[in-house]
Write a structure and sequence with these properties.
alpha/beta, Rossmann fold, 2 domains, 5-stranded parallel sheet, 5 strands, about 55% helix, binds cobalamin
């Protein structure tokens, strides 16, 4: 069934996607696993785009299908039964990048684990991110990056945080399709991943370590 859902997204089959998601939820499949299949399908769509088989229109349709699937899965991603706030996170897709599907998934999972999320959206100016950090004093900043044109603004934001003395005690995270451990090292971030769940696990571990 996991192959069916991937194929439906990759083949842009609008009718099949919601039905297949609903069917898998009814069958008791793990919502995170279903989400993982949707992400895998988006990677395949990206490959077709790169190979010239798909164009921007297909990317847009696949994004709509992903959003539809994510909306169906959202209520099943679990609510925290913990009243205590686990930590504060500022999240952004930086200037030069308008991709937000993965960032939104990460934000949903964080909220489900009692984190307070300040999602600044897409195409975010470094100065705006720094202002938000100054104002909300978060424990974490998460950068979502799907396109190489955002590397520069991400680097600028990090340098500004360092220059303003805001970097100490702040955990920086990097996630999204084009990120790698090498890029994380270059940008001096503390954690990098291609998977929202491991990002949440990192935040939970750090928050527990800090006694938050
Ligand atoms: C959908 C899509 C679009 C949609 C985006 C819709 C939206 N609202 O986001 C639209 C059609 C708008 C689009 C536009 C463009 N796109 Co586009 N797009 C994609 C595609 C197919 C899927 C991305 C996606 O949503 N994946 C699914 C999500 C769930 O995965 P994810 O983002 O990796 O997120 C997961 C984890 O990484 C993690 N995560 C994400 N963020 C964070 C952050 C933190 C802190 C943590 C801990 C975790 C975390 O959580 C998620 C769940 O596990 C990719 C292909 C690919 N391989 O990724 C191309 C891709 C990213 N796009 C690409 C390009 C080139 C473009 C355009 C320039 C095309 C054009 N000619 O106009 C424009 C970009 C404009 C801009 N300036 O940003 C290229 C980028 C190439 C590069 N190396 O830089 C890609 C890789 C396609 C390709 N292979 O060529 N795109």
């Amino acid at each position: 069934m996991s192959q069916d859902l991937r194929t439906a997204i990759v083949e842009l089959n609008r009718d099949a996607v919601p039905t297949l998601v609903a069917r898998r939820l009814e069958a008791g499949d793990d919502p995170l696993e279903i989400l993982g299949d949707c992400r895998a399908a988006m990677t395949m769509v990206g490959e077709r785009f790169q190979e010239g088989e798909y164009f921007l229109a297909e990317l847009l349709i696949s994004a709509e299908l992903f959003k539809e699937a994510a909306a169906l899965l959202d209520p099943h991603l679990g609510d925290s039964d913990n009243d205590k706030r686990a930590g504060v996170i500022v999240l952004a897709t930086m200037r030069g990048d308008i991709h937000d599907l993965g960032k939104n998934v990460f934000a949903t999972l964080l909220r489900a684990h009692a984190f307070e999320v300040h999602d600044l959206g897409v195409n975010v100016e470094p100065a705006h991110l720094v202002d938000e950090v100054q104002e909300t004093k978060p424990d974490f900043v998460g950068f979502s990056s799907l396109i190489t044109t955002s590397f520069d603004s991400t680097r600028q934001a990090i340098e500004m945080l360092e220059d303003k003395g805001l970097r100490a005690g702040l955990k920086l995270m990097l996630g999204g399709g084009v990120t790698t451990p090498g890029l994380a090292k270059h940008l001096r971030v503390d954690f990098q991943t291609l998977d929202a769940s491991s990002g949440v696990a990192y935040c939970l571990e750090e928050a527990a370590g800090a006694g938050a």
